[in-house]
Amino acid sequence: MSDLKKIGSLLILLGGIVGLIEGILVILDMGLTILPSLGYFGLPAIVIGILGILFSLIALVNSGYIKIKALEFKNKWMIILIMGILMYIFASGFGGILVIIGAILFVL
User: How much is the pTM?
Assistant: First the structure.
């Protein structure tokens, strides 16, 4: 395994863990924000938190760190990249950026 793949794999792991933590915190209405925002309250917080956790789990499963057969896909790096983009849009900005960079390095 080349050095770029190792670095990309590590970034995917870190981004997935950050995404899981941020998803849990959004569900509990204690989300991490780098820039000030209005935040989420009530049902949107639960939905966005669950989406963040799900996207993080899919990224971690397809990178090979977690084994869940139902969440595994064939074209792994593209799925990881898409999950990083969705993580960035919905729940975890910093975790999503780490997963996107990791997916790009993973394919090189």
Answer: 0.81
Q: What does pLDDT average to in each consecutive run of 10 residues of the chain (108 residues)?
A: 85 91 82 57 80 89 83 81 88 87 88
Q: Which residue has the tokens 């924000």?
A: 33
Measured in whole angstroms, the distance separating CA 33 from the mean position of its chain's CA atoms is 16
Residue range of the domain that includes 15: 3-31+39-107
Domain count, the chain: 1
DSSP for the chain, written as a single string: --HHHHHHHHHHHHHHHHHHHHHHHHHTT----SS------SHHHHHHHHHHHHHHHHHHHHHTSS--GGG--SSHHHHHHHHHHHHHHHT-HHHHHHHHHHHHHHH-
Question: CA torsion angle for 60, 65, 17, 76 (degrees, to 10)?
Answer: -20
